[in-house]
Design a protein that fits this description.
The protein has one domain (about 15-160). It is mostly helical and about 160 residues long. It has helices spanning about 15-25, 35-40, 45-50, 50-70, 75-80, 85-100, 115-125, 130-140, 145-160. The longest helix has 19 residues, at about 50-70. The protein is built from nine helices and no strands. It starts with 14 loop residues before the first helix and ends with a helix.
C-alpha cells in the first residue's frame, strides 16, 4: 500500500516488507487499512508463526479494540470480516490469554465492551457466526454503554448476513 495514495500497488510483499508496512500502519493508528492487511495475511504463514507475527497480531488486536472503543465499528467490521480463520483463532487465543491467564476460568462478563465486540467478530471470522451472535445476544441485556448498544447491533447484523 502506498501510504500517501492509500491503495495497494501489489500484494506480493515479502514477510519483512509486510511486517514493516503493518507496523507503520499501526503506529499511525490506521484502522481503515487493517482490512487490506487482512486480505493478504494468508500469504504470510511463516510470519504469523513467528514471535514477530505474534507481536504484530497483538498490536492489530489492540488497534481494533481501541477502534471499537472509540466508535469506529464501520472500519473494524470490514477488517475482521476478511481475517483468515486460522489467524482469527490465533487472535482469539491471544485475546483470551491476555484477560484470563492459564488456570483462570474464562468469564466473558469480565471483558470490557470493545473486547467482547472484537471477540464476537473474531469468532465469526472462524466461521462460527451462530456462536458469535449468541455471544452478543447473551450480553445485550447486561451491557448498557454507548459503545456496546450502538456497535453490537452493527456487529450482529454483519454476522447474521455473513458479510
Amino acid at each position: 500500500m502506498d501510504l500517501s495514495k492509500q491503495h495497494w500497488e501489489g500484494t506480493e510483499l515479502f514477510d519483512a516488507a509486510y511486517l514493516d508496512l503493518a507496523q507503520a500502519l499501526i503506529a499511525e493508528g490506521r484502522i481503515d487499512a487493517v482490512r487490506d492487511l487482512m486480505l493478504v495475511a494468508a500469504q504470510h504463514p511463516q510470519l504469523w508463526a513467528s514471535e514477530a507475527g505474534t507481536t504484530l497480531l497483538e498490536d492489530l488486536i489492540a488497534l481494533l479494540r481501541d477502534g471499537l472503543a472509540e466508535g469506529h465499528v464501520a472500519d473494524v467490521v470490514p477488517a475482521l470480516a476478511v481475517c483468515p480463520p486460522d489467524l482469527a483463532m490465533a487472535a482469539i487465543d491471544l485475546l483470551l490469554d491476555a484477560f484470563f491467564p492459564e488456570g483462570v476460568e474464562v468469564d466473558l462478563h469480565r471483558l470490557d465492551d470493545a473486547t467482547l465486540l472484537c471477540l464476537a467478530l473474531l469468532v465469526g471470522s472462524t466461521g462460527r457466526r451462530d456462536q458469535a451472535i449468541a455471544l452478543l445476544d447473551k450480553s445485550l441485556g447486561h451491557r448498557h454503554s454507548d459503545v456496546f448498544t450502538i456497535s453490537a447491533p452493527v456487529v450482529r447484523n454483519h454476522l447474521r448476513l455473513g458479510l
